[in-house]
Design a protein that fits this description.
The complex is a heterodimer. By secondary structure, chain A is an alpha/beta fold. Chain A has two domains: 238 residues, TIM Barrel (Alpha-Beta Barrel); 50 residues, no CATH class. Chain A contains twelve helices and 14 strands. The model of chain A has no long low-confidence stretch (mean pLDDT 95). Helices cover 24% and strands 26% of the residues of chain B. Chain B contains ten helices and 24 strands. Chain B is globular, with a radius of gyration of 23 Å. In chain B, 51% of the residues are buried. The chains are: A alpha/beta, B alpha/beta. The complex binds iron/sulfur cluster (SF4).
């Protein structure tokens, strides 16, 4: 069976080699000026180095330009996209159509991955963006396994699915942490804590803890659990999903290397010997559990959960 | 933001500048009654939800029959009806979409407000006479993205609520497309379309109308330290919350009109007829008065006072003037009660006797000071004297919802005028 690409999110340039060795096929990097919720900050120099490193190992490198842009940054896009093309990146990830417009004018041959996170929810719309120039659609995390499989079957573009890590639940343009500290009369607090990204919202009713952080793109609230479907890859591989993403945001680089290694092995086995994979599923999950930080419970996201409306 | 005179939207009449391009005043309606009130009180267009594909699964939603009736009613006033069709659809929602859109076209709606390209493309194929407006759910906030949607053939785009006045001005200058923006009402604190709090917390899909306003709940804030979690609040502080004040841009209307914004939108399909009547009539007055004579226009305090009468939360200009401050959020408070209660709807008035026939909407009794307002009258207050029921029996109070009562009014009133009472 076809093996899906294993896509990961390095924190720093020096993570690319260990992640390559652990079995990653492709990387997402970028800077928060243009990209959303990245594991680490890659300035232009870093992007160039990352492309070289990735290519030297035969891996791909994608640059995230998926923020929601206002006029000021929308006007900088030509320059940034031209840079990304010159740097030799393999694709640009976008959500805002302004990026599509800019790419059409300065980098018409640059492959584009459409990723709006929460709003990529049906195959028609994936194909719509395909007709407008996207070669891949990154699916919403709020979809069931069944919906993901149906989209993959109907899609005329490549399909990327997040299989591991934290997901985003909320983005506001407002600096909500800063505002809370201001309301409390503790303005300095946020300045000192901004880089730490160690704050949690606690929802007493559900007893869940949601990571929350602020950056140039506003305030982000993340899922209380990490998705982990290392033991449920079979149907997705069979359906022909093209890329599995492991998101390392708010985890350590070492953790990401280990998780990458385990997914690499699980994907290989699943594609080469599906029966043995089925028989050993639980062991894969146990191996992830063994390295999982105590404050990040694992779950299966929305793959097996029903939502109503 | 400063008002910059724009000659492209005005003309000179008798030496006086008059605005000829008036923006559309767009009001929400959750029921046929609300739709009629919105139009009667001066909305140029009304947006409603249908039975499917809209984002308020729990707001009043219209059947095709009701839509037809609404369209016919609006026509008499030269007003238009739009239907919100702004979910992000899942595969399972694709079946039935074509029939639904054909139904909208047959009902005579002027346009649909859409977020998902699935619905945009399907509408163009099966219901080509219906205009397609891009919903604020797309969080559209720059002119290049607006340009994209123009090239895709859309008639109108609704901008993200995060767009500032200056940004709107530039968008309007750069792209020749109709622009709609929100001017009043409650709003998401997240970028629209980018919040799935309710999906996680309550298994309800916010992008298909299931939002539970999880952002308005209270949370505790901690930091994760080596030695465990540390609380970032103290007992005397209100908990962390993400509740924004409501939007109110009534004072910014002159700059929006001069920018040439095409449609000014009021939020609130779940709001009462009293809320809709109050808000629509204030914005109607401000728009008309500015457009008739921009040079001598002066903003009146009474307009703000009037809006306060139905406001459930403190209000603020949000992003219009730039990033909203901490003061534009609510900590430890969950809204407030409006200062006035809606107590009666005028059904009829007898010129001879000066008697009003009124449908009771809330408790009132003789001696109460009440206020009448409506599009045909200058608002006035008076004391209620003797109240009679339909059969002429004297009542000690109007106690029953929808009960029809009569009493004397000091000035002529018209059907659908409203009566309200200040809360003690
Ligand atoms: S939870 Fe709040 S921010 Fe999120 S969609 Fe609902 S109203 Fe908007």
């Amino acid at each position: 069976m076809k093996k899906p690409e294993l896509l990961v999110t390095p924190h720093r340039v020096e993570d690319l080699l260990p992640l390559s060795e652990a079995g990653a096929d492709a990387f997402v990097v970028g800077e928060q000026r243009y990209g959303l919720r990245l594991a680490g900050e890659f300035n232009r120099e870093d992007v160039k180095k990352a492309v070289e490193l990735a290519h030297s190992k035969g891996k791909k490198l994608y640059v995230a330009v998926n923020a929601i842009f206002h006029n000021d940054k929308a006007e900088e896009l030509d320059d940034y996209i031209a840079f990304v093309q010159d740097a030799g990146a393999d694709a640009i990830i976008f959500g805002d159509p302004a990026v599509l417009m800019a790419a059409r004018s300065v980098a018409p041959n640059m492959p584009l991955h459409w990723s709006t996170e929460t709003t990529a929810t049906n195959y028609f719309t994936c194909n719509y963006w395909g007709k407008r120039g996207a070669v891949r659609a990154v699916l919403s995390r709020e979809l069931s396994m069944e919906a993901v499989i149906e989209i993959t079957e109907q899609a005329e573009v490549a399909i990327e699915v997040q299989v591991h890590g934290m997901t985003c639940m909320f983005q506001s343009k407002r600096p909500l942490l800063g505002h809370y500290f201001e309301y409390q009369g503790k303005v300095m607090e946020i300045e000192n804590r901004k880089e730490a990204k160690n704050m949690l919202l606690h929802d007493p009713e559900r007893n869940n803890k949601y990571p929350i952080f602020e950056d140039e793109n506003g305030t982000h609230i993340m899922s209380p659990n990490d998705i982990c479907i290392i033991d449920e890859l079979g149907e997705l591989v069979e359906a022909g999903v093209d890329s599995f993403k492991v998101d390392g945001i708010l985890h350590s680089p070492e953790y990401l290397v280990e998780v990458t290694r385990l997914y690499r092995q699980a994907i290989n086995l699943c594609a080469e010997n599906p029966e043995e994979y089925e028989d050993t599923k639980e062991e894969w999950l146990e191996r992830i559990e063994a390295i999982q930080p105590a404050h990040r419970p694992l779950d299966t996201g929305f793959f097996f959960k029903e939502t109503v409306y | 933001m400063t008002v910059t005179v724009n000659d492209a939207i005005s003309t000179i009449v008798n030496g006086k500048r008059v605005i000829t391009k008036k923006p559309e005043l767009l009001a929400p309606a959750g029921t046929l009654e609300k739709l009629k009130i919105a139009v009667h009180y001066g909305a140029d267009a009304v947006y409603i939800g249908g039975q499917e594909y809209g984002l308020r699964s729990n707001a009043g939603n219209f059947t095709f029959e009701e839509m037809k009736e609404g369209v016919e009613f609006a026509k008499q006033y030269g007003a238009k009806i739009y239907v919100t069709t702004n979910i992000y659809a899942h595969n399972e929602n694709i079946d039935g979409l074509e029939d639904y859109l054909r139904g909208l076209e047959e009902a005579g709606v002027a346009g649909i407000i859409v977020a998902d390209p699935l619905i945009i493309e399907t509408c163009r194929k099966v219901a080509p006479n219906v205009e397609v407006h891009l919903s604020t759910q797309q969080s559209l906030s720059n002119w290049r993205a607006v340009q994209y949607w123009k090239e895709e053939g859309l008639h109108r785009v609704v901008l993200a609520r995060e767009t500032t006045g200056e940004e709107m001005r530039k968008i309007k200058e750069k792209v020749d497309i109709e622009i709609e923006t929100f001017i009043h009402g409650a709003m998401c604190i997240a970028y629209s379309g980018r919040c799935v709090l309710s999906n996680h917390m309550t298994a309800r899909d916010s992008n298909r109308g299931g939002c539970c306003q999880s952002c308005r709940w209270d949370y505790d804030l901690y930091s994760l330290e080596e030695n465990g979690e540390q609380a970032l609040f103290s007992e005397e502080d209100a908990p962390f919350a993400m509740s924004p004040k409501d939007l109110r841009l009534v004072e910014s209307l002159p700059s929006m009109i001069e920018m040439g914004i095409d449609s000014l939108k009021i939020e609130g399909r779940m709001k009462s007829i009293h809320y809709i009547a109050t808000v629509v009539s204030v914005y109607r007055k401000v728009i008309d008065s500015y457009c008739a004579d921009p040079e001598s226009f002066e903003f009146k305090q009474e307009w703000l006072d009037e809006l306060e009468k139905c406001a459930n939360r403190p209000a603020a200009p949000a992003f219009f003037e730039g990033m909203p401050s901490a003061d534009e959020q609510l900590f430890g408070v969950h809204g407030k009660k409006a200062s006035h209660d809606f107590v009666g709807l005028v059904l009829d008035y007898d010129n001879e006797t000066g008697m009003v026939t009124l449908q009771q909407r809330n408790f009132f009794r003789p001696g109460d000071e009440v206020e009448f307002f409506g599009p045909e009258i200058e608002g006035f207050t008076q004391k209620v004297e003797t109240i009679w029921d339909e059969k002429g029996n004297e009542l000690d109070a109007a106690r029953h919802p929808l009960q029809v009562v009569r009493f004397k009014v000091e000035q002529p009133v018209y059907p659908n005028n409203m009566m309200r009472k200040e809360l003690a």
